[in-house]
Design a protein that fits this description.
Elements lengths: L8 H8 L14 H10 L3 H4 L21 H50 L2 H12 L4 E6 L19 H5 L6 E4 L6 H4 L8 E7 L8 E7 L12 H18 L9
Antiparallel strand pairs: 1-4, 2-3, 3-4
Helix pairs in contact: 4-5, 4-8
Pfam families: DUF484
Organism: Rhodospira trueperi
Protein name: DUF484 family protein
Length: 255
């Protein structure tokens, strides 16, 4: 991790006393000794430009319309260092957030797989994904069309055509900054929803389409500008699990 920090020149002087050019540690640090060190190390300020921030530069007589170039250089250096610190802090913060999201997504996928093994995928999505993905409501829903596998029937609350309306094939992820919760999608938690993220599911094998839906009580929690790759990844895993439900339920289906 890189962070550019201001270091008082006192720390530099303390370090300087340990340099090879000061053989006798008992020798007091004088202006001549500092000058000698800087003379022997002309690149010091290149390596440690923040030292300039702690120096008092000598004044100079200036008439009207005369600008001291040293003031300009110091101000520019201060601005560059401030921008560097701010940029570094922002990068570190963004990296931490991204790592946290990635870790939570991985945990969500493992939880989904475990829920499917137990035959409780719908409950797992509703109960566990809310905590893991930091949302207020999560739901797994399908259209009530055709012949549904037994495990899908309790989750088939959407009318035919609903999925195409909110998350068509050409845009399978819908991130809505402003949304009114639909009871057919979020059930009893619909009243909490002010922003939602919908991922289209197409299990195939004769199964109707569905949605993995996440709802948040804060408007703007989701927006079209946000990346959707992690949500898409979770949705593909859920879709894979649901696809297995259709095997063996239809005449001539494998396994």
């Amino acid at each position: 991790m890189f962070r550019l920090e201001r270091r008082p020149l006192g720390l530099f002087w303390e370090q300087a006393t340990r340099e090879s050019w000061l053989n006798d540690n008992s020798t007091p640090l004088t202006d001549d000794a500092v000058l000698a060190y800087l003379t022997e190390n002309p690149a010091f300020l290149d390596r440690r430009p923040e030292a300039l921030l702690h120096l008092v530069l000598p004044g100079s007589a200036r008439g009207d319309g005369v600008v001291d170039i040293r003031d300009f250089v110091v101000r520019r250096l201060k601005d560059e260092l401030r921008e560097m610190r701010d940029g570094t802090d922002a990068l570190i913060q963004t990296t931490r957030i991204n790592m946290s999201l990635l870790n939570r997504t991985h945990q969500a996928v493992l939880t989904v797989l475990q829920g499917d093994e137990k035959g409780t995928l719908g409950e797992t999505v509703a109960d566990d994904l809310t905590l893991l993905l930091d949302v207020d409501v999560a739901a797994l829903r399908f259209e009530n069309a055709g012949r549904l596998p037994a495990r899908s029937a309790p989750l088939a609350t959407l009318p035919e055509g609903y999925v195409d309306m909110v998350a068509p094939r050409e845009r399978p992820i819908a991130l809505r900054a402003q949304a009114k919760g639909d009871e057919r999608l979020f059930g009893g938690g619909a009243g909490l929803v002010a922003s939602d993220a919908l991922a289209r599911l197409e299990p195939g094998n004769g199964h109707p389409p569905g949605l993995l839906a996440l709802g948040d009580r804060h408007p703007g929690a989701f927006s079209e500008e946000q990346a959707s790759d992690l949500l898409s990844f979770v949705a593909r895993v859920v879709e894979h699990c649901v696809r297995q439900w259709t095997f063996g339920d239809r005449p001539g289906a494998p396994g």
